[in-house]
Amino acid sequence: MFDSPVVRVRVPASTANLGPGFDTLGMALNLYAWIEMKQSDETRFHLYGDQLKGIPGDKFNLIYEVAQMVFNEAGVSVPELEVSMYSDIPLTRGLGSSASAIVGALAAANALIGSPLSDAKLFDMATVIEKHPDNVGASLYGGIITAVWDGVHAQCIRLDPGDHLEALVVIPGFELATSKARGVLPAEFSLQDAVYNISRSSLLVAALAVGNLEVIAEAMKDRIHQPYRAALVPGMAEILKEAPRHGALGAALSGAGPTLLALVDRREQRKAELERFLKETMQRESVPIRMMWLKPEAQGVKVYTDAESGRSFLDMIKGESVL
Ligand code: HSE
Description:
alpha+beta; 2 domains; 7-stranded mixed sheet; EC 2.7.1.39; kinase; transferase; nucleotide-binding; GHMP_kinase_N_dom
């Protein structure tokens, strides 16, 4: 029925919103998940790494469910799959782990049956599953994306992240469900707050497009979601306000949180000062954290063409993962 008996993909993490671009802006990051998929006589999962502990290893696994959506859409039947997965993307922390799983599963399943579905179709499907296009768009296309969704179709423009951006992420030692972080948001906003966000989100996209990093601090301000979510993440309000004074271009809650993200110019001299400020602020709030320097990832989901080169799944990802 189809040629490729084994498919492997690598899919990047992502940060959504970048402050004002709620459910609109996304940026891929150089932290990844990998999936191997093949047809099998019986469904089996091999889940590797600390990030996947507790994930179901049966047909209730999101990867399996999403793969079946691809097969249904393409009109083919592949009821049993053998799936291996390894991920460095922390779960439920605001770094797009569910979006990466969805995009990885869509891309792997599509490649397994000879890629009948276009990227645009995969983007539509991913957005319907995730309910917003920001993280899935970034994981699918890489770079920085500005996206819209009408409930059925998603569209986006991808910007190249350029050479100068880095991100220092502060990952708190607790999980925050997206549903909880969305539950605290009001249903309506004042015209003033709408204008505040539209103007800054537009400025941010223009600044990133032309590489004008000077306006980023102002352009990353937001009144639509972060003020309401600040109560869920101790230290967040101070970090968003003060990080630009310690060497950040600007700072935001990463997606629905609880991770905080400072955008930094790679040439910045005060990186150690910024690290110290972030660490001490979270320490004062008694929140254990992990900090990581990440880079924007220009490449979206990558389908390996040499999946049958003889290397095992885990051998293939060594060197790129934290394995
Ligand atoms: N834009 C979404 C939110 C991202 O902020 O709720 C969540 O993954």
